[in-house]
Amino acid sequence: MNGALSDILVIDLSRVLAGPYATMLLGDLGARVIKVEQPGGGDDTRRWGPPFTAHGESAYFLSANRNKESITLNLKDERGRAILRTLVAGADMVIENFRVGQAARMGIDYASLSQINPRLIYCSITGYGQTGPYRHRPGYDTVIQAQGGLMSITGPADGPDGAGEPYKAGVAVVDVTAGLHAAVAMLAALHHRQQTGQGQSIDIALFDTQLSWLVNVASAYLVSGQPPQRHGNAHASIVPYQPVPTADGYLMLAVGNDGQFCSLCEVLGLAELASDARFATNPQRVAHRRALLPLLEARFRTQLTAHWLERLLAAGVPCGPVNDIPTALADPQAQARQMVQMVEHPVAGPTPLLGPAPKLSATPAHIRSAPPLLGEQTDAILHEFCGYDDETIATLRRDGVI
User: Fold this and answer.
1) 100: left (phi > 0), else alpha (psi -120 to 50), else beta?
2) In the chain, which end has fewer C-beta atoms inside a 10 angstrom radius, N or C?
3) Model pTM?
4) Are the C-beta atoms of 71 and 401 separated by less than 8 Å?
């Protein structure tokens, strides 16, 4: 089946993670994505490793660049920019993550390219956005995690002497979420264009993204005026909502209401706790968590994780195992949902990749092609869009334009 975006052409000028993640999502949904890379090097992540495949392909690059074609263009050369303008003339979307002002200096910003294509949707991803006092600063995921407050609430609970060591998340969550915001905004702009015929520019900032997904933590501060604290793996507003030790490891509990707490107590053989005034309601459990948790943990330690999982799930108590990455990817649920798929790579051969998360009934997201080699489709794209013959392409390659 054709994807929902099979009639959409995206020119991807971005690199590393946020922009490539956004365009990968659009590609999963059927869009044709042409990734523009610097000759000789390409996306920085092509060299980020180990690990690499046996043929030298970076696992990092493979993670965010499926369903794309690669063309090499030297955008510092006017001939390279002329080729880009030809591509943009027939495109629906452009995405870039240049430093603020850099695209304008090359004449490939929204103001310039929209003159060629007024229907163009143009998305810029930067560290701090196109406005504000920090707009010229470089933006990196871990810096934004720190500056945007995430590291102040991540890690072990604060000790008696105040805040402990800050911790970053284990994945570049700001980059990934910025990519999600970018993809959503580009689809909203596409809908607007269908109604009005007008393109528009989109300004995505990593810093804005970080602040936006503080959600309930930020809201708690705005309502109470109390700065949020670290709670380790526990939840500030729900108890019990954290890993608990078992006889052979840990079990993650997520008891979200009083009825589930009653069921938990029944399974543990501690029914009296559900009627204890200190624990009967969630606000009371939050207030008395230090009294409650040792009672629960002592009982959990008496049996294996599998024992508790079976009984708690049967009783409708939300819980799950604390898996490592290999176990999570091999989980029967992950397999049933096709979250790991084998794709034929042009040099690496059969290569495992994560599968698309959205499941659409009529226009399913799917992997059509492996992440491309650097410049793999350059010649074909120049033939198709520019009408160049082989001799012209050879000259451009010799001159370092492609």
Assistant:
1) beta
2) N
3) 0.93
4) no
Q: Is the pLDDT of residue 176 over 80?
A: yes
Q: What do you get for the CA distance between the two ends of the chain, in Å? A: 34
- Would you please indicate which residues are annotated as catalytic (active-site) residues? 175
pLDDT-derived band at 231 (thresholds 50, 70, 90) equals confident
Cβ(67)–Cβ(368) below 8 Å:
yes
Would you say residue 200 has pLDDT above 70? Answer: yes
Cα dihedral 330/313/299/255 (nearest 10): 100
Domains, in order of start, for the chain: 9-213+331-398 (3.40.50.10540), 243-322 (3.30.1540.10)
Distance CA 381, CA 75 (A): 16
Write down the H helix ranges in 197-330: 206-212, 215-224, 258-268, 272-275, 282-287, 289-300, 305-314, 325-330
CA separation for the pair 39, 399 (Å, rounded): 11
Q: Can you name the residues that pair with 345 across neighbouring β-strands?
A: 349
